[in-house]
């Protein structure tokens, strides 16, 4: 049976639209960092290379290579860790050109450095892309976190973040870092802006 993250990991990817506490384990990712407006073409190209690598792993058995422990699964959604430059933090309004980000796609646990290297090899063989040199394969662990599902425009996220901050304060917790994580459950290219689903997450202590 195919592993579906929407069914088997609902606590991480389909939270309620109000803040909840969750423990996020170690996870493996293909990731790439950058700075600037996410509406720029460069950002889209970075998303594309992450998906190319992720689908290279997913389709490996059809390329004659089956990693140890491989199982059928649905490719995980795009995620992003967001921050601002010092200039951006001091501004009274959000300047998207001052955003600093790392975008990433989670990989199943069977993906090792060897499997990652094989994915890079397959993508390069199909079509060389200079962005590949900027992609890394790493493990991350959020640990204790507060998250919620934000429904609607990305520009309306501040309201949800305020709910989360209130919940964190009421729970006698503290935000570990001003950086936050977003998980894009909806495909923004195909979904009405009012129905976009985005998981928002703060690491806390």
Automatic annotation (TrEMBL):
<feature type="domain" description="GyrI-like small molecule binding">
    <location>
        <begin position="18"/>
        <end position="198"/>
    </location>
</feature>
<protein>
    <recommendedName>
        <fullName>GyrI-like small molecule binding domain-containing protein</fullName>
    </recommendedName>
</protein>
<dbReference type="InterPro" id="IPR008319">
    <property type="entry name" value="GyrI-like_CCH_Lin2189-like"/>
</dbReference>
<dbReference type="Pfam" id="PF06445">
    <property type="entry name" value="GyrI-like"/>
</dbReference>
<dbReference type="InterPro" id="IPR011256">
    <property type="entry name" value="Reg_factor_effector_dom_sf"/>
</dbReference>
<dbReference type="InterPro" id="IPR029442">
    <property type="entry name" value="GyrI-like"/>
</dbReference>
């Amino acid at each position: 049976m195919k592993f579906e993250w929407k069914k088997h990991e609902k606590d991480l990817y389909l939270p309620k639209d109000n803040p909840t506490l969750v423990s996020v384990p170690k996870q493996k990712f293909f990731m790439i960092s950058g700075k600037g407006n996410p509406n720029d073409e460069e950002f889209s190209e970075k998303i594309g290379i992450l998906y190319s690598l992720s689908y290279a792993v997913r389709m490996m058995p059809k390329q004659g290579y089956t990693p140890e422990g491989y199982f059928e699964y649905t490719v995980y959604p795009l995620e992003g860790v967001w921050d601002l430059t010092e200039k951006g933090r001091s501004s009274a309004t959000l300047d998207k050109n001052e955003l600093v980000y790392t975008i990433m796609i989670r990989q199943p646990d069977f993906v090792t450095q060897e499997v990652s290297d094989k994915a890079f090899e397959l993508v390069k063989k199909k079509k060389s892309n200079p962005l590949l040199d900027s992609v890394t394969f790493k493990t991350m662990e959020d640990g204790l976190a507060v998250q919620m599902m934000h429904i609607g425009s990305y520009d309306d996220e501040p309201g949800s973040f305020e709910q989360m901050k209130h919940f964190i304060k009421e729970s006698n917790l503290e935000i570990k870092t001003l950086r936050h994580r977003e998980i894009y459950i909806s495909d923004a290219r195909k979904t009405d802006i009012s129905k976009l689903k985005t998981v928002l997450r703060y690491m806390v202590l």
